[in-house]
Amino acid sequence: MARRPFATAIIALACVAAPLLGCRKHKTPGPASSSGGANPAITTAFPRNETLYVGGRQWGEPSSFNPLAGWQDWPVNDMNLIYETLLMYDPLAGKLVPLLGESYTVTDDSVDVAINAAAKWSDGQPLTADDVKYTFDLGKQFKSLLMSPLWTGGYITDVKLGEPRHVVFVLDSKKKNALPVLDACVEIRIVPKHVIEPMLKAANNNIDDFLKQKFDKDPIGSGPYKLLAYSGEKIVTVRDDNYWGNKVFFGGKLPAPKYVTHPIYKSNENFSVGLMQGNVDVSSSFMPRIQEKKVVKAWYDKEPYFVPTSIPMLWPEILHAPLDDVHLRRAMAFAINYKDIRDLAVSGYSDPLESGLVLPTGLEQKFFSADDAKQYGASRYDLDAAKAELKAGGYTAVFKDGELVETHDKAGKKLPTLYIKSPSGWTDWESIVRIVVKGMRAAGIDVRERFIEANVFWGDLYSGNFDLIMFTPTPQPEPSKPWSRFDYVLNSSEWAPQGEKRYKNMGRFNNPKAPGYVARIDELLDQIPRIKDEAELIKAYRELNVLYMKNQPTIPLVYRPNQFYEFTEQHWKGFPTAANPYLPPQMPGERLGTRILWHLTPVGGS
Amino acid sequence: MLRKNPTLRHVLGRAGWYFVTFLVAVAVNFFLPRLGDANPIDAIMARGGAMDSVSAREKEDAYLREFGLAQTDSNGKVVRSADGKPVKTGLASQFVNYVEMSLSGDLGTSILQYPKPVMDIILDAIPWTICLQLPTIILGWLFGNLLGALAAYKRGVFDRVLYPLALLASAIPAFCVGILLVYGLGIKHQWFPAVGGYDPSTTPELSGAFLSSAAYHYVMPFLSIFLIVVGGQSIGMRSMVIYELGTDYVKYAKLLGMKESKILLYTFRNAMLPQLTGLALAIGAMVGGALITEIIFSYPGLGMAILTAIQGNDYPVITGCTLLLSITVLVANFSVDVLLGLLDPRIRAAQAAEAN
Amino acid sequence: MELVKGLFKIPSFLFGLALFLGTLGLAFFGPLLWHIDVVSRVGDPYMAPGAGHWLGTDHLGVDMVSMLITGLRASLYVGFLAGVVATVVGTLIGVYGGYKGGLLDDILTVATNLFLVIPTLIVLILLSSSMEKGRSLTLIALIIGCTTWTWSARAVRAQSASLRARDHVALARINGYSTIEIVLEQILPYLLSYVFMVFILQTATAILTEATISMLGLGPYDSISLGKILNDARTNEALIGGKWWAFIPAMVLVTVIAFSLYVINTAMEGVFNPRLRK
């Protein structure tokens, strides 16, 4: 009997020791090698009024902070916290904002970016035009890197050092398309040549081996924060008080939070709970019915709450009957209850859908024509119009007891059931697909939902293995919008047959070798990036959009923000909103949203 | 020597069979995930941002080489068939490669968390799982057995109240308990933190702040498992004790006028033995059992690692985790077999009879 | 027969039976009493319970009572199908292995242990991603049945092994009866009540397993089950929003089915295992 309390004590000890064992590998980068400033002490507790908690960007244990790897984790991917881009894009004003690049000039043949003379790396070395050239040249040498599509896509032929501190991207003389270069300026993070080059050399120039380097030990970047520690539960960055931009952009002011921390939760609802209980300050996770959560705020204080930047859509596989028939595709578009999608599947986080590939609000509004949409578009819930299109295509539906049994084509043959593929577990898409199926079946089109494993989804999507599939083209706000969205949906160059992978126009619309090829579409896609005159540009976009609507190669469903932007002011205040739009709705640390960090103030004094 | 020692012979025999099971399990664990059509590379390819055909193919080749999923020619180029699809490496040669690496302690590299080694993923996750599950299961088992024995012995009102409650507790699905705890104590009343293993404002180390926050976060996940274990164990123990109380040896002992407490001790000991099986099995299965708790409370651990790996077709992680799972379950079962053989005279007798 | 009659005198048995028949009744006769419609939107998302819709609506504005009755039917279907599969497979393997012993028994034990070490979840996901139609309700039931039979096999094996030494079995063996005959005529009849109890437990386990699998988001694509209702509630944050009608009723139904089956099982145990009576 005497042994019992002992056993209990051991168990109690085990309970307490658990998390300690768990943190066996809690990584704390070593002291800075040659950093100018004092290395911040590894603090054990992070005071709430000095720490900003961000969420929704990291769902599992971080694996790599390598700035060149495509799979980077939170403070690197899309962030300007550790590494920085040349420019930043303001999706509200449609302007490019300086960062490492002080200014830029676009001509017919080149994009010239002047590098800020004050820019320096966290080890004190100056950040030069040579670093920039080196970064982009890596994409020419190693074709699997993020910047390589600039080269492999044939948009640039060279990156040159121009005048002192100038980098010149030489555009392909036939395409003369500067848009992808500008996109790259806001998306490609510049890496330190003096760090990367020796490492690559040590890896015998084998990029696969180099990409395995984690960059988790005091990585050298140019941004306002440094990696402090990380584990499976959180990633912590600490302010670099010597950040070059403090003086250049903010008159010497430091960003308010000393620490920016991303706790790692496993699901959306965990981030929602975090926001509601004040453990997370700002998050880009999906949170349904935000209006019910009193402490959580968004960009707008009423519907649609968020700023739309993208259009999730259905992609029919166009090479084969019956989906090669535009009547059927238009009938499908007319048969969908878009209001139900908006109200139920996305919690009202969308403006009413308009036809075409142009967003009817914000910067793209000038390219939108309500008249065109009304005349040619099919993106409105209209069962009579759907039935008229079906009739025009010679389709008949067989109903029994009000339930659709099958659909026949004009030859009287039964059509196979068409399946809409969507990744299983993507709940909002699941809801959208259910509403779509309900509407189409009511109109007499034999479709069903098919939710597939996410890993199978990507292969099916790119190789064209589907009847219809859910996908959102190029969701990020970029200088090239809406051209890049049209290009992604309609481009038929680099044609690949079904079965081979294709990373644009996966429904394989407008086969250049097929009889019905509309050459005008590819012409317009080629011309638009070169048009300078706005009236002419509007005309070209309208023509392209009408061609899109007439052919209906995809079926838009709803508008979505690229990322959600939810915050609470329980611990920090000063977040931008529609009422105070001093910066766009982006996560602090992400793209232009990085600057929010300088505008925050702790609640209740610091 | 084996002839003379039936117990040892029995143990060795069982060990042999368990080893066979283990070998088959390793093979099944390896081949099952790879039977499907899915290409895990597609999933990581999708993370890479903007792509065109050239850079995508280059990237795909790099991954295929890294994970040994496609055949390569003498220059290290991935071999592709006429329609552009990579020619897959034969499963058999993948398996040989896998066994060789596993024997040297290398479980490969995760695909989803590339370039993280599988071993690191497991080592990072397992302490949390063990520390949440092991004490909970053991405490729940002890407490449940105590309650069950008491109920069987006392009967009456105590039994009539406790027994249906225990039955109910074991009928509630594990996730329901978890969800109700999160909803009731975590969100509605906010008595306990709803998610995580410790407060993000602390760092895992030996400090009061951290330990108290870890203990605070421990309460709800602990309760959600504890309640169910207690329910299940007390039911089992109750029927075992009632059963033992009705056996001939107890009646005989009573006739002999043996002291009540002594009789109780015997019955308790005999009833405990089969309950040990339950304990060992529960411990063996704790990795799988942790899944629900970990998801609901967003608690770190191995269950979560497995689920993520399965959803992403992360073959190396699935195989690594299932290997671990197989080992723990088999070891637990084997220990039960051996222990029961050593402790239970009835089984020992049967073994001796078998030997003759 | 005496024993069966005895069963109906036990209050706990009657209570469990009534509870179980109640859920069965709800599943079978519910659609007659309530207009079932799991497609149409009848109100706002997560509309609170009220007249017309006693348990409100789900995240798509669908009537919750309709969802629950449909889900209950699916869960019972999974339970029975998986229960039958698991019991039949487990009993056959257990009885045969237990009676025969020796090498065959060892091989069957390896097979049994093998299923013990390979988690149901993994088998389920892998099979479903290789099947064109994906995870159907029937597939899930079959997989649950095929992976949970192990413990009934172990339990039955122990019983069967203990019967082997009985006189009447030895007598049959001496009289030259074949193994199959002995198993069918001398062993199985003695185990029938036991097998039935195993079936009840397997059914309860299958219903709980399906609910768990679906709750993790790995549920059937083609039907609504109680677990799927719970998963929808979880992923659409009904929990955080305090929309109790979206998850409490489904939880209660799952628990009531499992609880009633457990009560029936223990009551039967008391009757068929005389030593448990007092």
* Mean of all residue-level pLDDT scores of chain C: 85
> How would you sum up the global shape of chain C?
elongated
- Quote the beta fraction of chain C: under 5%
Main sheet makeup of chain C = none
Secondary-structure arrangement, i.e. CATH architecture of the domain at 118-344 in chain B: Orthogonal Bundle
Fraction in helix of chain B = over 70%
Question: What's the total number of strands of chain C?
Answer: 0
Shape of chain B: flat
Q: Sketch the topology of chain C as an H/E string, one letter per element.
A: HHHHHHHHHH
Count of separate DSSP helical elements of chain C: 10
The SS-based structural class of chain B is mainly alpha
CATH superfamily of the domain at 118-344 in chain B: MetI-like
Instruction: Say what oligomer this is.
Output: heterotrimer
Separate helix tally of chain B: 14
CATH-defined fold name of the domain at 118-344 in chain B: MetI-like fold
Radius of gyration of chain B: 26 Å
Q: Span from first to last CA of chain C? A: 20 Å
Main pleated sheet of chain B: none
CATH topology of chain C: MetI-like fold
CATH uppermost class of chain C: Mainly Alpha
Strand proportion of chain B, as a percent range, falls in under 5%
Notable features of this structure?
heterotrimer, A: 606 residues, alpha+beta, D-Maltodextrin-Binding Protein, domain 2, Dipeptide-binding Protein, domain 1, Dipeptide-binding Protein, domain 3, 5-stranded mixed sheet, 17 helices, 17% strand, disordered N terminus, B: 356 residues, mainly alpha, MetI-like fold, 14 helices
SSE inventory with pairings:
The complex is a heterotrimer of chains A (606), B (356) and C (278).
Chain A: H1 3-22, E1 51-55, E2 84-85, E3 87-90, E4 95-98, E5 101-106, E6 110-115, H2 129-141, H3 148-152, E7 156-161, E8 166-171, H4 179-187, E9 189-190, H5 193-202, H6 207-211, E10 225-230, E11 234-239, H7 245-250, E12 259-263, H8 268-276, E13 282-283, E14 296-297, E15 313-316, H9 326-334, H10 338-345, H11 370-376, H12 383-392, E16 396-400, E17 403-408, E18 418-423, H13 427-443, E19 447-452, H14 454-463, E20 468-471, H15 483-490, H16 519-527, H17 534-551, E21 555-556, E22 566-568, E23 572-573, E24 601-602
Parallel strand pairs in A: 1-12, 1-13, 18-19, 18-20
Antiparallel strand pairs in A: 2-9, 3-4, 5-6, 6-8, 7-8, 10-11, 11-12, 13-22, 14-22, 15-20, 15-21, 16-17, 23-24
Chain B: H1 6-35, H2 40-45, H3 53-66, H4 91-103, H5 118-154, H6 156-171, H7 174-188, H8 208-245, H9 248-256, H10 260-284, H11 286-297, H12 302-311, H13 315-343, H14 345-355
Chain C: H1 2-7, H2 11-33, H3 64-100, H4 102-117, H5 120-130, H6 137-164, H7 167-174, H8 179-218, H9 226-235, H10 248-272
Helix pairs in contact in C: 2-3, 2-10, 3-4, 3-6, 3-8, 3-9, 3-10, 4-6, 5-6, 6-8, 7-8, 8-9, 8-10, 9-10
